[in-house]
């Protein structure tokens, strides 16, 4: 069973973005480049936030932008963007890390959510995620050890 | 008892929130239904409690259902504390 949900090219560190739209677009474009989603999915990610607000903040400083499977998901997976400086959706609603999610339906991505939950639920792994300087640190957080 | 975990589309962060809530319920030996819903349908679904993020909490408050606002949807300590406080009232 292939449970390696994050690939080397799925991580981008030290990213500068002038606003949240740019940051989300960078995060979405990684999903496009790694073959997870169609370009339309990236627009859907941004539209969802514009419509519903910055509800995608799942932990302090961490947001999980995504759209619906029918918005153009090809293959399940995630992308990670760690920003150089925090960017805000609105005052007091800042994020340092984006976890772009591509899910094929409402059930099959549960193992991905479990992995993300594992990382953000502990203060030390959450800090390692926010302050990562090497792609390997991120890959180690999200992929099971035996697959390295 | 029914708990509704709410997010924008009903399968991303609400699903993660549901997993955290179920973990704590199991730990405490409490039986309850935990379901996910998207924001637009949440107010038409019967529940005893709604767990959601700060944005949606503000908008869902004011109805008959007790709304709990969550900062870190995967933080067991935060969810445990929130569950304890609503179940005692």
TrEMBL record, chain B:
GO terms for biological process: phosphoenolpyruvate-dependent sugar phosphotransferase system. InterPro entries: PTS_EIIB-like_sf, PTS_EIIB_2, PTS_EIIB_2/3. GO terms for molecular function: protein-N(PI)-phosphohistidine-sugar phosphotransferase activity. Residues 1-89 form the PTS EIIB type-2 domain. Keywords: Sugar transport, Transferase, Transport. The keyword RNA-binding does not apply. This is PTS sugar transporter subunit IIB. It comes from Psychrobacillus psychrodurans.
